[in-house]
Amino acid sequence: MTSTTARVLAARIPFFYGWVILACAMCASFARQAAAVATLSIFIVPMTTEFDWSRSEISGAVSLGGLLAALISPAVGTLIDRSGARAVLTISILLIALTVGSLAMTETLVWFYVAFTFGRMLFASPFDLGTSGAVANWFVRRRALAMSWLIVATGLSLAVMPLLAQLTIDAHGWRAGWVAIALAVLVVGALPNSVLMVRRPEDVGLRTDGDAAPLATSAGGLSGSTRADEGLFTRAMALRTPAFWLLMLYTALIFPVQAGISLHQAPHLIQRGIDPTTAALIVGAFAAAAAASSLVFGWLGGRWPVRFGLSLAAGVTAIAAMFMLGVTSVTGGFCAALLFGSGIGGVLTLVPVAFAEYFGRLSYGTVRGIALPVQVVGQAAGPILAGVLYDLGGSYANSLSTFAVLAAGATVLALFARPPR
Known about the structure:
It contains 15 helices and no strands. By secondary structure, it is mainly alpha-helical. It has one domain (16-200, 229-414): Growth Hormone, Chain: A (Up-down Bundle). The radius of gyration is 20 Å and the shape is globular.
């Protein structure tokens, strides 16, 4: 959509156009979960059974995709600051549909690695930066609430995608399961972002949060009278603050836990005697809990210092990892999933909020793009760590204990991440 067309539409609709942007980002967040580890977890048992792959081998594709995402993140962040999220998200949605659909043709481990690694790279960098960057550019006062709705879309997708995959696998096999996931991506994600996404409110004569009195756009793309509470840091300024490095270390500790448990939770539940379809429902309960808790943490994010919310989310995640060690029944599985989802929903909501709140939206993509490689490396390390420890010990006990310690460390660290001056 051109700026002129968007300006006309923004003027005619009876509400703030930022909510349209949020809806587009939510559609992209839904599509993104095609390459989520929770979705892949449904395919682990049928694919490893057919091809006799180890858990470490299949987890390696997740890790390799994360490493590639770490390499491209700085460039993607800068591109989003300059051009907006529209092209990045539209192309990413089309490519991720192509990659997960091609997994239906898997016959070798090499093919699986090529397809899923590329999809995981898209998941970990362009989607993350594109969706959070779009929301950060349109909202300031309501940013935490808006970000929480992104996680609602994520949770909805993580409830739908694994169950869609499992039901299709039960009826037609795992190859058809990947095709069903690819079709869901195209139906939900492609059209809204290609047609309706706009870079910043200033591009269509609006202000963040729908505030009154439209401002003229400056050469840099932001209003000359930008609000004082936006905290506009350049990349160089952000790198000189302790807050930047503390937030980055927080992500290094918590995201191996998020990705490691998410990928292996279904196999862990199946090993504990829970049937595959029920395990998929439990994964769906985790996703629903993440969606619900994101709204709670989004509400808290507008009332508490964001570091307190980050600490609480990590603490709940640590408790969930310990609880998972003792799961022996369906009830226990659901309780563990609800705890884990509650903690991860807070983490996913508040990490982008913290970067936007602390450093502003002028260089949000660039600043977050510098920090994101640490997050995606953590997400790459978690699944492979869990897979290796499983192959060595025959259970997930050691990996869950390790993840509980990491999350506990993040709980303490977050409290020291004070806003920069």
